[in-house]
Amino acid sequence: MIFERDRQRLLLQNASQTNIGSRKLLLNNLKQSLFRQVSGRWMFRLAKFLFFFILFGYLLWLWIARPQVIIDENFGESDPTSADSDITKIETLCSQSTSTCYSVVDIINHKTASVQRGMYIDGFEKEYDTVKELIPPKGMTFETSDTRMWTINNTAITTQYVAAMITQLFTTSALPLEDSGDSERELLVIGLGGGNFDMFLHTKRQNIKITVVELEPVVVQLATRWFGVVDNDQRKTVIKDGIVAISEAKDRASKYDAVILDACDNTKEMPCPAKTFLTDQILINIKSILKPMGTLIVNILPLKRHEINVEKVVKTLLSHFPVCIKMHMSYEANVVVSCLPYSFAADNLDDTKQLILQRAETATNNLGIHRVLEYLDLTIVLK
Ligand SMILES: *[C@@H]1O[C@H](CO)[C@@H](O)[C@H](O)[C@H]1NC(C)=O
């Protein structure tokens, strides 16, 4: 039917170029001779044409579009276990108090021609505590120089959960988006690893005071030697049990803008956070060393029974904090939770969520970590 009407219009257009008389004549011709007799044949031709047209289009799509759909299994060049990489062990040190050994490796990715440095606990080779990007000496590649001489790029974030912990500092008002008031800001970080979180922040926002507490002296040694971790007036590492550090901070009446709990134990089901931090007394102490607008940020790493374990931790946190904000990663099992000592009004949570998302987006753009996170997945959980 459509085709008939188009043809009619075409003929009428032709007709209007001649004169009105012949237009009438054409119309009559059209009705009487053309359509009654010919339209059946035209319809058949049209159907045939459409069939081949669609078939051709589909084959063309298969041929052109298909190979472009590439599934990127090495997102962010952060998968050190990829088949395209070579791993060279740099150093292994063992704890004197526990039997835990820590290994530092350089991971050469042939596909991206980049080198990363990682640290893992022996026995957990698949779960790196830290991965950092290396910077080659000018004009050098891994083929022409020893990667042990390369420097660390502290502003390159390779894991989503670290980007999420940084983002959580800004989702609420723990840290301002602008750096103007930074000199009055102070953070307490429990767990050093390779210093991804704190060295990134220290490099980007130099006036924020950061204290990192690490229980294991061997980790501090490796982080300083191989991961570009530095001590200065603004950022320092303290070798101490985090539980003791929190309790001492409470006795000193210190107040922090954020306490970041990134400490893990060696349980296989959920290594992070270390369970010793989830007692009532420790959570009460942490709450007492937060400023009124401060936040507690917790890295949760469930390796089994994901949902159940995350819910358990969040429930424990909510018994001391009125509200938590959960962030899920798209490529990692980690869930990063930020808990506040103050609450949100329950009747306009949607508006609050929009505001939080806006702040998170601005912060990740300003800090250049939006591509690591890929997208923001936030959930507000009230007590
Ligand atoms: C360090 O990493 C950042 C973020 O990926 C990048 O923009 C910067 O160019 C890197 N620096 C060097 C010296 O390679």
TrEMBL record:
Phylogenetic classification of the source organism:
Eukaryota, Metazoa, Ecdysozoa, Nematoda, Chromadorea
Key words of the record: Membrane, Methyltransferase, Transferase, Transmembrane, Transmembrane helix
Source taxon at top rank: Eukaryota
Bilayer-spanning residue ranges? 46-64
Name recorded for this polypeptide: Uncharacterized protein
**GO MF entry, a single one:** methyltransferase activity
> Gene3D superfamilies, from UniProt?
Vaccinia Virus protein VP39
What is stated as this protein's family in its record?
Answer: Belongs to the methyltransferase superfamily.
Entry's Gene Ontology BP terms: methylation
Q: Which InterPro entries match?
A: Lys/N-term_MeTrsfase_sf, SAM-dependent_MTases_sf
